[in-house]
Every structure is written in structure tokens, then in C-alpha cells.
Amino acid sequence: MSLPERFVERTLRELGVEEGRALCEALESESPTSVRLNASKCRPAGASPADNRQETATLPGVAMPTDADGLPDAGGRSDADKRPEAAELPAAAAPAAPCLPTDSADADAVARLLPDLPHLPLLRRVPWCADGWYLRERPSFTFDPDFHAGAYYVQEASSQFVGHLLRGRLPAGARVLDLCAAPGGKTTLYASLVGREGLVVANEIDRRRASVLADNVRKWGTGNVAVTCCDAASLGRFEAWFDAVTVDAPCSGEGMFRKDPAAREEWSEANVRLCAARQDEILREAWRALKPGGVLLYSTCTFNREEDEGSLERMLAWAETEVEETGPVEVDPAWGICCGRVGAFRTFRFYPHRTCGEGFFAAVARKSAEADARTRTPKSRRSVLTPVDRKCAAELWRWLTEPEAMRFGMAGDTCYAWYAGQAEAVRTLSEVLPVIGSGVALGQIFKGVLKPDPALAFFPGLNRTAVPVAELAEEEALRYLRRQEIAAAGLAEGMNLICVRDRGLGFAKRIGSRVNNLYPNSLRIMKQ
Questions:
Q1: Would you say residue 58 has pLDDT above 70?
Q2: Alpha helices of 290-327 — where are they, by DSSP H?
Q3: Which of 100, 321, 384, 513 has the most other CB atoms within 10 Å of its CB?
């Protein structure tokens, strides 16, 4: 399907004929494929599993130096001094090529990571994300066991920029609200960013999409996320509660025109106006939930001004002096990002004819420390989480490498663990909101013994001495992921942790010559 006629007319009018045509041509080209590696589950050749860290980490050859503010320093110039107008394009007309050759540092990192990620054709780094990589081609992720183990997330490169905007701007133990979170790319990025002391509340209003979000969060395995399923107003009632609120707003999807043909079919000027009105409502609730001094990050995957700068202008009309600048954001001109301003907001536009990624818009600002806002928590409506007794706690304790850092509880008949610093916050949320998943689901206790939940297999803090580990070859791992029968040879009698390349996939129970495949039916590979 061709680009919508009214979209093309507007693009040529607003960007000019030359730039407009370049954008439209780029939207007819092939999209680059990119991933973001999970630093707690990926290691270079020669490293041991103990070298993995659960906190925020970077992988070999992908570290970025930081400037004086603790932000990644691209060696470029600040947008604050160079491009004051939100809609202005970069002065240089040299767009980034989608497939640049690797430099020596990239090539060395690829060589070191290849044995650990044999199915990923890594090409070069995403320059604004320490763990982001472009691929030479798009592989069949469905048949890669490492994908199912949460070793990486398939995330569009432009959207990985949100980590660059937040890095160095959050306090230790930060609470981050990802208000429109499904399917989970940005949520998992934030989870790695805040580390074990922080908490990410990932919300999705649609129940089906929320289930997908929860699955992706479990696979990522950081154990510091609570997934909720409610409208923005419900979270707005947690007034001045979060250190950062991110709004990846539902939008008209113009930036996805080359990646998703359905976006072209569904686009209309009426839908643009509808999305803009919805974004205004969401931003009001986001601002309510944000602490004074906290950071607001707004983003869309669309190009039109009404949903991008226009949404910010309408917000500034009522938020007024409560909105302040966050400080400089370093952006290398070679990245091709169009930097600008809307009041106190710093804005960043990604055009696919200039950057190596899809269309994307992001803006960041801070809520004034002097803003008139007191922390308010809605009254508890129910008690969902119950404590565990000593005998149960002792059994749970042996399944974790650092049980002293965790707090335990039960929801129904399932035992959970949360990092101590945020356990009370999760309890507070669960008493008011529909929380469909949080922390680490450990499993159920039967006759004093834990039957592990599938989620526990993904958690890097699982104590591997608590259960025998069965390392499967590639084809056998795929049989396991299809929930087919697997051979009993190599499995110990009783419960086993199933791994591939030392990454947990799930559990299986051997009973004599038979093996019960316990991989969740909802996650199994259907494709042959």
C-alpha cells in the first residue's frame, strides 16, 4: 500500500520538497533490524557465569564515556546551544546509512559475543544505547533459544534513545512509571537502568497486551518490575509518587509506515486528532503522578506536530512554571537526530532518512522542585499479599543466591520475592491497582517443597545448587520450547532447570524414563 496522500502532502509542505521526498523515499525502503542485549545474561567468550551482574551493566566494546553530569558523552555538542527550534533539521545533509561497516571495536566485541549468541548476526552498535546492536539481517527469532531465554530484546533502535535521556537523571532506588508500556521494550530497558534498588511500574490498559508485557518482563528476569492493567487516571491517583514518568503515547504511528503496513491503512487525519486528545489526557495524569524534581519523558512514533510538539505546547499552557529544563543532553551530530526546544522541553526527532532507525519523537523535562504537590497514596481497598511462615521462608531462601536481599510473600497460593527496598511499594500498589505480575514468581509450596514457577528459571539470582541443571543441545531445546517430549538422558530424577548456553528456559521433571515438560503452554513455539 502506498503512503497516505494527505500524509505526503503535509510532509512536503512542512519539510520542504527535498527533505519531504527524502523522508517518503526512506519510508519505502527496508527497515534496519536491531536488538538490545540483556547484560545480566550475556557474556563474552572466556567469561564465567559469575561474571554476569544483575545490576545495570554494559557489554564488551559498548561502554560510553560520561560527561560531568553522568550522561553518556558522544563527544558531540549539546542540543541546548545548537538548535533552539523544535522543527529545525540538522544543518548537515548527510543522513546516516542503515548499514555502516563495523569499526575495530565493534568487530572485536562481535567476535567475543558470537559464541554466546550464535544466532545473532551482530553488525555494529547502536551509538546512543550501550547494549544496542544493529543486525546484518533479520534472523528467525522464533527458533533462537537465546531469544526465549531473555538474552536480548528485539527493539527498534530509535526507541532505545530513551535510556540515553534518563541515564544519570534518576536517584538511587528510583521509582519509574512506564504509563503506556506494552509490549515491554522500554520497560525492560528501564528495569536494567534502575537496577535492583529501583522499581519500574509498567502499565498497560489493554488486558491482552498487558499479558504480553508481563511475559516479556518475566523473560528479562530483573525482578524489579510490577505490571499493572488500568487506565492512566488510576495511576494518577498516586500523586507525586514517582521519580520519573515515561509516556510512550498511543499515536497515529506515522513513524512505523515502512515497518508496519497496517499503520498506513489505519492512518487518517481524524485519527491524528483523536490521538492528540488522548495524549493530552494521559499527560495530565502523568504529571500528577510525578514527584517535584522528577523527570517526565514523552515519546511517540509519529511525525506530525499536533501529536509531538503540539502535545507539549498544550501541556505547558496549564503546567506553566512547574516545567523546568533537565540540563544538557549530549547528541553527536553524526547520529542525525534533529534536536530542538518547546519551552522547557528538550525535543529529539528521528527521521529514517537521517538516522538509522524508524520515525520517533522524544521530549524530556523536569517537574520543578517548588511545584505544589504532596505525595498522596489512594486508600487500600483490599489485602492481596500475605506473609509466608518460617518453614516456607526457609524453603524459598535456599532457591536464591542472595535471599537476604529479598522479601517474601504470597498472592493466592503462589510465593513471590521482591527486592527489599521496593517490597513495600509493591504491596501498596497491589492493594489499590490490578497488579498482574511483580517481582519474581517463585512457585507453590507442596508438602514443604517448592514447585518452581517458570518465571524463576529466567531470574539470574536463582541458586543453581537448589536444583539439578540440564543443559540441552540446540534441537532438543527447540523441542522443549515446543512443549514436546524431550529425552530423559542428561536429566536427574525429579525437578530440573532446563538451560541452553547456561541460560534458564524453564523446568522439567524426570520420573524414571519419562520427562514432564513444564514449559508454559501459552509460550510454546507453534511454528514448525
A1: no
A2: 309-319
A3: 384
Question: Which run of H or of E encompasses 6?
Answer: helix 5-15
Which residues is 244 bridged to in the sheet? 176, 295
H helix intervals, 27-130: 79-82, 104-113
Q: How far apart are CA 248 and CA 184, in angstroms?
A: 11
| pLDDT value of position 1 | 75
Predicted pLDDT of residue 104 = 65
- Take residue 334 and report the three cell numbers written for it: 553524526
Residue 437 to residues 202, 410, 501: CA-CA distances in angstroms? Answer: 10, 12, 27
Total Cβ atoms within 10 A of residue 333 = 16
Q: Beta strands 440-446 and 449-452: pairing type?
A: antiparallel
Strands 323-324 and 360-367: antiparallel
Active site residues: 301
Maximal C-alpha separation, the chain:
73
| Closest to 134 in 3D by CA, of 355, 454, 447, 461 | 355
52 has a pLDDT exceeding 60: no
Which three three-digit cell numbers place residue 380?
A: 487500600
pLDDT digits (tens, 9 = 90+) for 419-464: 999 999 999 999 999 999 999 999 999 999 999 999 999 999 999 9
Output the DSSP codes for 377-429. -PPP----EE---HHHHHHHHTTBS-GGGEEEEEETTEEEEEEGGGHHHHHHH
Cell of 94: 548527510
Q: Pick the more confident residue, 45 or 413.
A: 413
3-state SS, one letter per residue, for 161-212: HHHHHHCCCCCCCCEEEECCCCCCHHHHHHHHHHCCCCEEEEECCCHHHHHH
User: CA dist 109 to 114, 157, 187, 313, Å?
Assistant: 8, 18, 26, 43
Phi first, then psi: give them for residue 211, nearest 5 degrees: -65, -40
Q: Do the Cβ atoms of 244 and 170 come closer than 8 Å?
A: yes
Q: Which of 105-119, 161-175, 204-218, 437-451 has the lowest mean pLDDT?
A: 105-119
